[in-house]
Amino acid sequence: MSFLKRLKNVFSGEDEPEKKEEAVKSEKDKPSVEKKETKVQEKVEEVPAAEKPEKVEDKPAEEKTKEPVAAEKAETKKEEKPEKAEVEEPVKSKEEPKKERSESMTLLQKDEAIVTRADIDENFKQEIMDAGGESLGICFQCGTCTAACPSGRRTPYRIRQLVRRSLIGLKEDVIPDDTLWMCTTCYECQERCPRGIKIVDIVKIVRNYAAQAGYMGKAHKMVGSFVIKTGHGVPINPQTQELRKSVGLDELPPTTHSFPEALEEVQTIVKATGFDNLIGYNWETGAID
Amino acid sequence: MAEQEFAYFLGCIMNNRYPGIEKSTRLLFDALDVGLKDMEGASCCPAPGVFGSFDRTTWAAIAARNLTIAEEQGNDIMTECNGCFGSLFESNHMLHEDAEMKEKINKVLAEAGREFKGEIQVRHFAEILYNDVGMDKLAELVTNPLENLKVAVHYGCHFLKPSSEIGIDNPMKPTILDELVEVTGAQSIPYKDKMMCCGAGGGLRSRDLDVTADFTKEKLTNMREAGVDAIVNVCPFCHLQFDVGQVEVNEKFGTDFEIPVFHLAQLYGMAMGLPKEELTVDAHQICTDSALDKCYLDEITGGE
Known about the structure:
The complex is a heterodimer. Chain A is mainly α. Chain A contains 17 helices and no strands. In chain A, helix 2 crosses helix 6 and helix 10 packs across helix 13. Chain A is elongated. By secondary structure, chain B is an alpha/beta fold. In chain B, the strands form two sheets. In chain B, strands 2-1-3-4 form a four-stranded parallel beta sheet. Chain B is globular, with a radius of gyration of 19 Å. The interface between A and B is large, with 72 and 71 residues.
């Protein structure tokens, strides 16, 4: 049977039973994961410096982060249109020589797709567990967390992946990744986790490591500096002072805003924990270095 | 003197941006004869998204300092911000459970001349109204029933979650806030993905406003489809996100959302017939008139 005729039959569903089975099988054998990996492979060629597909996957994720809405669209195209993928795939595979197809399966390319011991920080898992994320060790990767995540619906943030990579010890993979900061700590993942894992605590602990390594947003450092300067993450402003007065409240609330000695206590605390150094707070200028 | 008294934790956004929430809370608790004692010298809770994410020790130490102010008073804390509730409740809980952490934090606090003892509870405004004050007493205060008002109730995240520690209500299908809203005569309207986050938390609003706005847009779309007159929240940060964030959503996406936003304390102020100005609802970014018109009788015609 000619290629075109076979193709026509695949689409019209008029194939002989045997052939039809084959077609269905080839569809089944091609989950969207493979399509995704194909893309990853393509990227490998584009980015010669990248050595591991793990890293490569992160790279587009970072790029997407800047344009979350566009990223959402890209994600949808890639993962959420299985029908289109299934129809296209068998055709594509028949067009391509068999050799290339197997090359696109990264699992078969043992030399390139491997995460080696050199990538693993043996202590990372234990450090997270000791810092209050004890339950990290019992994750069985069901993915309920990612399914529940409102941030994952609009950004490349994948909480299941974050937990898995932390568990393996891919510290250098997890910490610089911008998506780590896409979690709103809404607890939807944690509430649904069948293992009762304190996922949000784990996210925060991993973020603590990211901050120690210098991965901190400028806006976040600014909030930190406001607390050091005034005791408030959102300090008072003249308009609100007026508004307070207009309803008979004291212009300044009875907080660190009204009690300088209380502010000194807060400042003593941030010096004692080293938070001022962490965010690069300059005590003389009140700015972030 | 009032039989019951709470240490009133203000936080940042309420007192420094939306003082009408603070004002209406003080008037409400006066009317209920429940005492609110100021926590003099309290600071930011501190902001869980930044402090919790950057350094848990600093986060717990600043939170613990706030807790010690209430311990000195011998009062449980009341806060009406989910973020403050999250920081204070969680750190209080952690220092209770984790002796090692408690020792570490107390070493830090000692430098500021303080010690965390673990003697008080941290409570949320809405939960106190529901459990301690009770519906009957609240219903007595309603002199201006808000019968024409259809409300989208927004629970926010840290009021009920993590539920295994907080245990106020079912985190998937709660009713506490709907009941507290409906006692005013207003109607709580169901809407799609009601329990979804507003998008502001975890430090996301300050770090990536586009993603936050995308969350908020989804919530606003679902609320509008349900045909509500107003959003009612129990968190000044969610409040800010729906008020200021609504303007941002309109700018970013070319939408025309105009849903008035009220904190539960302001809604009670309206139900008690307090003057609008006292609630500073006229200072919101999103004009509240369309909702207020359904709540306040027209002074000239008597509302007929």
